Structure formats: C-alpha cells, structure tokens
Amino acid sequence: MTTRLDAQLLDSKSVNWSAHIDELRSRLGAPHNPELFPPHFLKSTFPKIGGRVVVFRDQHIFFGAGFLFPRALTRDIQEFTLRFHKANADVQVTPQEMTDAAARLVGKSNITFYEPTKAQFLQHPAHTRSESVKLDRPNLEQAQSIRALQQQIWQSQPDDLYPFDIHASNFNLATSLIATSNGAPVGFLFGFYKFGGSNLPAEWQAQFSTGLRVESQVMGVLPGHRNHSIGLMLKKQQSENALREGIPIVNWTVDPLQYANAVLNFGRLKAIAFDHYPDHHPFRNALNQVTASRFGITWLIPSKRVKEACSVTQRATIWRLTGNSTIPRISLGETVIPTSAPPVTIAIEIPSDWNSFQNRNPQMAQIVRDRTDRFFQNYLGYEQGKYIITGVGEDGDLKYLIAERVSKELLERLSA
Tell me: the pLDDT tens digits for 56-105? Predict the structure, then answer.
C-alpha cells in the first residue's frame, strides 16, 4: 500500500484546544483505551511542560497520533519521546518516517519513538528509607499496581487514570517511584521532564535557570499509611534524582484551599508559590466539586532551606498565630488586604477541611473559591511588593497560608 504521510501539529493556544483533545481521544478509543492519558492532563498540564500533539494521516486518512513528551535537553537541543497511538492497522508507516515528520514540525530536536505496547521494564536497586519502607523504580507488576492505587485513593473513573506503561524505562519519566511497606505497594510518585516553566525573579535566573525542570504530577499514599513520612520520602528521593541530573527546580500544582497538602508543601518541604491558575482543570470530582483552581509550586531543591527540610528528623513548621497581633489576618473569602500600609507578612485563612466544606455547601464553596481566586490573582507574584506563599499557620481551629511580601532580602533568603 502506497503511503503519503501527512503530519499536522495541533495548536495548544487555540480556543478549540480542549475540543480538539476530546475529539482526538475519542478517535483513539477513549474512554475505553487504558493507554491514553487523562483528558485533564492533556488539556492543562501537557502544553505547560512543552508537550506537543502531532496528528498523522495517510492520503488524508487519519491513522494515529503522536504525543511529544519532553525527554531531555542536551546542549540546548530539545529531546522528545513520541508516544504513538495507532488508529488504523491497515496503514504501514515506519517509526523513522513519523519521527522525521514530527521533527520537521517542532524544529531542531531529537525524537525517540515509543509505543505503549512495547514498554520495557528493567530492574532497579531499591532505596531503603526505613525498616519497613522501600522506594523503587516500578517493575511491570508494580507499575500496574500504581494505576490501581490511583483508583483506590481517589475513586477515579478509568478514563481519568494514568496508563501504567509510563513507568517503562524506554518511556523515560523524570520521576517514577513506588513505595512498598513489607512488600505491599502503599504509595507512589511520578512526574515528567519539562521545558522552561514559569518565570523566575531576575535575581534567581543565573542560579536556577537551566531550561529543564521536573513537573511532579501525581503523588498518592494509601490512607492507612499516611502520617508515616512516606510522602516526604518520595519527595526527597525525587529531589535527589533531579539534582543528580543537574535539575534545580521541581514544579507541581496544588489546590490552594487544601490545608493538609499545604502543611506538606509549605510547612514540610519548604516549597513556595507565586503562580496562581484559576479554573486550571476542567474536571469535577469528589475533591473538586467547584472550580478547580491551583497554585503553581516552585521547589528550589539546591537551596539550604529545602535541603534542611528534607531531613526525615525535621518536622513541619507551623506558625502559631494565637495571640499574635502583628500579622494581619485575611478572613476566609476576603478579597483585599485590610490595611493601607502593605504588611511584611500576612495570614490568609483557608478552610480547615475543604472537602467537607464543598460537601456541606457547594454554593458557598464556589463563592469562597471565586473570592480567593481574586485575592491570589491580585496579590500573588514574585515582583517587588507582591506576596509569595512560604508557610502555614494555625490559630486554634483556624487554618492559614502564610505569605511574605517580596523584597530583595526575602528572595535572598529563599534561594540561599
């Protein structure tokens, strides 16, 4: 059969991007194809990490699609993994033809062809973190268990689960870890390589700008195994792996109103947030019954404060605000700082249990989301006079995010 290959690059900046993703996934077998990535990832996160989508046709007949995942950055040459999904078995096109066509579209780059059905799993040495907990790069059986853990932890629909084969050595995830306790899988963490990322303060450019970062995508621990520092162990291993590759920044996104996550991210890991994405994800589920807004997290892993925080002997830092009248409080849903003189530090109230709050009163939850979105959009940033989320605080039953006003001294302290 004569092949006339035609390749088209989808525009992630198009107003029809989400619709194009839905249509493409449907043509590739969604929602019944477990090899496909979840729609919310492809619509929101994939373009932000530098991912591209190539549609392949033979004589105008659609026969498959390639998802270009960042793989490496070598002497300023971007390298991608072309994850190919075939939709028409009658069309015979070689991997080289497809990678050549994709390279012509994205410019100077190196592209590695990958098919989910040809995943390769290799054995890797385990990293023992405690007497009972071990961290491994997953083998085939463990990779399949990670998909099951996702469903068990979040009660996700099958189409919202990540395919297990992404943990294959030849797919080349930036982070691929499973935590086992006495041999049983209890937690996991995975993330992707990322080209570029959100802007940094000018003072940090020379220190942290490498063109390649890690986008930490999903971390989960079974409920019965939480409060045993497994999440910390996974993040610590992730940071060590990234530093070995010369990568100084790990990013991820979190719901600004989830206090337990804030304790881990800001109080324990010493990550910071100066990026805010309102209505970031299109999905709705048990944890996101209203608009799914997110903080963009920046983790400066070579910094002294992060390295010290990753010590297992450390505990989360929680500001004790009871009786402290020097730090202005932003009440839940308040949209402005209630003072004419910009304070150095502010405490922003968030729900003590956002999940229960949404369940009890979804209408009020949406109002709180809208108002906190407005506040973060107005005040969060790394420019002088804006605020960076650096910690968490408590006053009795009230929970707070701690934000500090940007100054030269603050930027030096965070990056030292």
Answer: 998 888 999 999 999 999 988 999 999 999 998 888 899 999 999 999 99
Using a 10 angstrom Cβ sphere, with 0-12 exposed, 13-18 middle and 19 or more buried, the burial of residue 60 is exposed
Asked if the peptide bond before residue 39 counts as cis, ω within 30 degrees of 0, the response is no
pTM: 0.92
Question: Of all helices (H) and strands (E), which one includes residue 299?
Answer: strand 292-300
DSSP secondary structure, 222-288, as one string: -GGGTTSSHHHHHHHHHHHHHHHTT--EEEEEE-TT-HHHHIIIIIIS--EEEEEEEEEE---BTTB
Q: Running DSSP on this structure, what letter comes out for residue 37?
A: P
CA dihedral 219, 222, 225, 229 (to 10 degrees): 10
pLDDT of residue 284: 55
Residue 220 reports pLDDT greater than 60:
yes
Under the banding of pLDDT at 50, 70 and 90, the label for residue 1 is very low
How far, in Å, CA of 370 to CA of 377, rounded?
11
- In this structure, what DSSP letter does residue 38 have? P
